[in-house]
Write a structure and sequence with these properties.
Elements (H helix, E strand, L loop, with lengths): L4 E4 L3 H12 L4 E4 L11 E3 L2 H8 L18 E3 H14 L3 E4 L4 E6 L4 E5 L4 E4 L1 E4 L6 H6 L7 E13 L16 E5 L2 E8 L12 E8 L3 H6 L20 H14 L2 H12 L5 E7 L6 E2 L2 E3 L14 H17 L7 H36 L2
Parallel strand pairs: 1-2, 1-9, 2-5, 9-16
Antiparallel strand pairs: 3-4, 6-7, 7-8, 10-13, 10-14, 11-12, 12-13, 15-16
Pfam families: FAD_binding-like (PF22607), FAD_binding_3 (PF01494)
Keywords: Monooxygenase, Oxidoreductase, Ubiquinone
GO molecular function: FAD binding; monooxygenase activity
Length: 370
């Protein structure tokens, strides 16, 4: 019987958890359906001390993770993913298996059976789902309520190269986030390190997140939303119709401040830059069942307005890895997972409830200011 722990999902939280386990000399296998992400979310808050403590690697040491040293440390999704993946590949106790698509997970009592799209199977002592807001592992754990629910708004995202703009953005690299509310929309923008880590004006990347409550019809037509209001997809780069992008550009020219206007317009007009994420929230009834557990967005989905998405996943990873390291040799992993759920679930449910309140307030604001 296999004694292997398998992490489903090799994105940010999955790789963070793998490194956290490796710090305690717990061998794990990470299974990821993609072959090394190139693009993902565009910007996120990060706590360098927390990441260093959790993974055993300091992001300020070589290879350095480029961040904006503002009141809230910011980095880009691609930079953080590349940093985590590099560390994972270098860590001998982690097996990273990419281009492997999981289609089914079955808790067999004494072990977990994993089925793949190529017809193969694998048995594991335990499975931890870090497979995002549409988590297959979550669907196995909470079959009665497995789907994240649409929060009433979409976020248009983009990451624009500053060198492609006619003029540099007059916003300090340590200025943090710019937040603007206009006519029922919300804009969050910032200057971030360039692809080479540079913080010099003209060499940085400009990120924007445009919160929009007007795209329900588009999301239904594109298959991102079910009739029940469950989020099952997103508007990916390269797939957003040019008419939609042109309409957004016209709105951006009218409402967004000159400081960010050129970057936002350029971003929404580019099929290779613009993506649209319908914001979903999920308040979990549980985090574990038998030899299955979930962490990160697989366990709890919150609005980006909380600024707690990835950071909460890091906290999940830190706690679960430590509990696994303290497991007695004859103790079932299911017992550890249950302790993790008891310790972590109250905080998670409180955070998601807070997120839902924030979302409700924004939707009401947008409706009032239309």
């Amino acid at each position: 019987m296999s004694d292997e722990i398998v992490i489903i999902g090799g994105s940010l939280t999955g790789l963070t958890l793998a490194l956290a386990c490796a710090k305690y000399r717990i061998p794990v296998r990470v299974i990821e359906r993609s072959a090394g992400h190139i693009l993902g979310g565009d910007s996120l808050s990060i706590d360098l001390d927390l990441v260093a403590t959790t993974t055993g690697y300091d992001p300020r040491a070589q290879p350095v993770l480029p961040v904006v040293p503002a009141y809230r440390e910011l980095t880009t999704w691609p930079a953080l993913y590349a940093w985590l993946r590099t560390r994972t590949i270098e860590t001998h106790s982690i097996v990273l298996e990419e281009s492997k698509n999981v289609t089914a997970i079955s808790d067999m009592g004494e072990y977990v059976n994993i089925s793949f799209s190529d017809g193969s199977e694998r048995n594991a002592a335990a499975v931890i789902g870090a497979d995002g807001y549409r988590s297959l592992v979550r669907q196995t754990i909470t079959q009665e309520d497995p789907f994240a629910t649409y929060s009433g708004y979409l976020v248009w995202r983009g990451l624009v190269e500053e060198r492609e703009l006619e003029r540099s953005v007059a916003w300090s690299s340590n200025g943090g986030l710019w937040i603007e509310f206009v006519e029922g929309y919300r804009l969050v923008a910032a200057t971030l390190p360039g692809r080479d880590g540079s913080l010099k004006a003209g060499e940085r990347q400009i990120t924007f997140a445009w919160f929009d409550t007007h795209q329900g019809t588009l999301l239904h037509q594109s298959g991102c939303l079910t009739e029940e209001g469950h989020v099952i997809g997103s508007l990916v780069r390269g797939k957003i119709d040019s008419t939609v992008r042109a309409e957004l550009a016209d709105i951006a020219k009218d409402i967004w401040p000159p400081l960010w206007r050129e970057a936002v317009v350029k971003g929404v007009l580019s099929h290779a830059v613009l993506s649209g994420a319908p914001i979903a929230e999920y308040n979990p009834p549980r985090l574990a069942k038998g030899a299955l557990a979930i962490v990160g967005d697989a366990a709890h989905v919150v609005s980006p307005m909380t600024g707690r998405g990835y950071l909460t996943g890091v906290e999940d990873a830190a706690m679960l890895a430590q509990m696994l390291s303290q497991r007695a040799s004859d103790e079932p992993i299911s017992t550890v997972f249950k302790r993790f759920e008891i310790a972590r679930l109250p905080y998670i449910r409180g955070l998601v409830t807070h997120s839902m309140r924030i979302s409700d307030e924004f939707v009401r604001y947008a409706k009032y200011h239309r």
